[in-house]
Design a protein that fits this description.
Largest sheet: 9 strands, parallel
CATH topology of the largest domain: TIM Barrel
CATH architecture of the largest domain: Alpha-Beta Barrel
Helix content: 10-25%
Distance between the termini: 24 Å
Shape: globular
Structural class: alpha/beta
């Protein structure tokens, strides 16, 4: 067994110093270092850095030149191996509104990788299907020609691999689809790319929506006489929200307010595209041209097209722009997303008998080491 020492252990409700964690594939003991005979274990010295739970990115389209919607198993492995360097140990490969055939091919590719032992990267939880049941008026970077009317049977036929999906609750047939999927599966239903009014969004929530796709982006805004989807999501304690904390999609001045309102229902995501981890230049998203310049990814008409955010840096951005404690910010990228997917009994926090998934990072959340199922999968320079 292994033992991590000399770290600042980031637990769900505190940060502990002079504590050690003992593990094999699962966490076996968390105790004061003085109460552990460290000579019995293979020692990992955290050198004063933060020892965090492995991160969980539930909304990521691409990384290192690969895109989930390519439907290429090798590309998915590239992503899984790339994001583990950012401290991510669990993720949901995320599809776009491309053709139905391409979506099905992507689902099959994710199945193939998830059910294999032939890759060394972050653990796949299942697919996040962003669309195709969205409102064309809020399509954002999604391809309008591939938007479909809500079809619950499409999601239910793939409920073995789809963990969550996005739907616009106001479009014709959406409420019936939401109700059927809620009744016949455990798939998380998210509202997004939607032009719903506050009332329509609330009706969607009453029908089974319990999550919100990249809050504020591609949805009706919050105003004082028309609260919109944003108002519905913020005002309901049973609805979780995603936040792209890259300081471009959402002004950093709102980070603290959103965190204060949503608490453990706030999930940091990257919404990263294939340009993530790559040099500035021209790329594609869902078959459409995108240009990356710094933290910005834009289509030719100026539409925002995903991000190149890395999840460890999203934590840093939250810390630098809110009053959240370290453990609270880390929870937003680990425990909270695990909880909304019903995976918190296995992952998301450092607790005895949970999977031994860790990220060791410095004060700027640069990743020094990532451990998955008790094995060192990444070690920085």
């Amino acid at each position: 067994m292994k033992c991590i020492i000399n770290g600042k252990l980031v637990l769900r409700d505190s940060v502990k110093e002079n504590f050690a964690v003992v593990f094999d594939k699962r966490i076996k003991k968390i105790a004061n270092t003085n109460d552990i005979n460290i000579s019995e274990y293979e020692i990992i010295d955290a050198k004063g850095m933060y020892v965090c739970p492995g991160l969980c990115d539930i909304h990521i389209h691409g990384y290192m030149g690969a895109d989930v919607s390519d439907g290429d198993a090798d590309g998915i492995k590239v992503m899984a191996q790339g994001i583990i360097k950012n401290g991510v140990t669990a993720w949901c490969p995320t599809t776009m509104t491309v053709s139905k055939r391409e979506i099905e091919t992507a689902f099959d590719a994710v199945r193939k990788v998830k059910n294999s032992s032939g890759y060394y990267g972050a653990r796949i939880l299942g697919v996040n299907s962003e669309g195709p049941f969205i409102n064309p008026s809020k399509k954002g970077a999604q391809a309008e020609e591939h938007i479909l009317a809500p079809d619950p049977d499409f999601i239910l036929a793939n409920k073995d691999i789809v963990k969550l999906f996005t739907i616009a609750p106001e479009v014709c047939g959406a409420l019936e689809a939401i109700e059927k999927i809620k009744k016949e599966s455990n798939v998380l239903i998210s509202m997004g790319h939607t032009n719903a009014t506050f009332e329509q969004a609330k009706t969607g929530i009453d029908s089974g929506v319990s999550h919100t796709t990249h809050l504020f982006n591609a949805m009706t805004p919050l105003t004082h006489r028309s609260p919109g989807v944003v108002g519905a999501a913020l005002s309901d304690d049973n609805v979780s929200v995603e936040l792209i904390a890259d300081t471009f999609h959402i002004d950093k001045g709102l980070f603290g307010l959103i965190a204060k309102i949503k608490k453990d229902n706030l999930c940091l995501i990257t919404d990263c595209i294939r340009a993530g981890g790559m040099a500035d230049g021209d790329y594609t998203l869902g078959g459409q041209p995108v240009r990356k310049e710094g933290i910005k990814c834009l289509m030719p008409d100026g539409t925002i097209a995903g991000s190149v955010l890395e999840l460890n840096k999203a934590i840093l951005n939250i810390l630098e722009n809110t009053n959240l404690e370290i453990y609270q910010a880390v929870n937003c990228a680990s425990y909270n997303p695990a909880k909304v997917l019903g995976q918190d009994n296995e992952i998301g926090s450092i607790e005895v008998e949970k999977r031994a998934d860790f990220m060791i990072a410095d004060d700027k959340f640069n990743v020094a080491m990532t451990i998955l199922d008790g094995e060192i999968r990444y070690k920085g320079e």
